[in-house]
Amino acid sequence: MLDKITFIENIPENQRHRIRKVKYEKDEFLYYNEKNTFGVVLEGVAVFVRYQDDQEFFYPWTLRSGDILGVGRYFDKGDWEITVYSKTLLVLEIPEDLMEKYLLSNPDFYNSLMKKRDQFLNIGIRGFFIRLHGGVKAYLAYLLFLYSEGSNIVSFNKYIDIMKMLFSNKAMLYRVTRELIEENIIIKEKKRIVVVNRSLLKSHFEEFIYD
Known about the structure:
elongated, four-stranded antiparallel β-sheet
């Protein structure tokens, strides 16, 4: 697996024994804000969450294959909670001192990481902007567009879990879902939503651009 991740080649072979693969289960928390470790996502999806009045809310950031855990802690001292969204999550854990010495010191790697970090932050900022100015339906469309990228499928255990993403109530969730179904944009199945028209889905939020 190591040779499939090109930037690992910058770490000497005699140090690679310190890199390990770790498997996490669904809903398990990833404490990379507390570790002196970076984690490269190999398989699965993780999401950022916050808690308010004992309720869990998902934020419009996902970490997928190739994304790096621990970047927020290292550069921004962030305190976001991150949890596993998919059934399992496979992560390659790299000690911080190896990242600093062999990767972050590499200008190409560092610049690429900073560019991806800025893009990542902009996704979240735009999401908040859409929720504020476009409302629940536009925000749901945005989240479904993001979460279904590459597969056109958004999976869930219980459909009301989608409320965690919307900061809304059950009645509103079902109303906007029904509207998207009637517009032939999505199909709702037992434990997943299938996006059947990405262009129309995008039309519900594309006018809301944060500058």
